Amino acid sequence: MQSRSQRRRRILKQCIQKKSKIEDNAHVTQEIDSDYEDVSEMEEDEHIQYEDEFDDEYESEEGEINIDSEDEEILQKEEQSQEQSQQTQQQQQQPLQQQSKLVRKKKGMEQESQENQKRVWFYDEAENLDFDNRAYNMLHRVTTEWPCLSCDFVLTEEEQQQYRNKEYHKMNKYPYTVYLAAGTQAAQPTKNQIYLLKLSKMHKTKYDDDEASLSEDDSEDDNLSNDEEGQVHLSSVTGLKCGVNRIKTMNGQAIAAYWNENGDVSILDLNPLYKKLLTNQQSQFNLSQLHHKVFKNQHEGFALDWSRLKLGDLISGSSDGKIYLYQLNNNDWIRENKAYEYHKGSVEDLQFSPIESFVFASCSTDGSLCIVDTREGKHKQAQILVKAHNCDVNVISWNQVSATLVATGADDGCFKIWDLKYPKNDAISEIQFHNKAITSIQFQPNSDSSIAVSSEDHKLSIWDFAVENENNNIDDIPDQLMFVHQGQKDLKELKYHPIYYEMIVSTSANGFNVFKPTLDEEEKKSEQSEEDQAQIPVIKEEDLNKYFQQMSIQ
Question: Does domain 4-25+116-533 have CATH number 1.10.10.10?
Answer without folding.
Answer: no
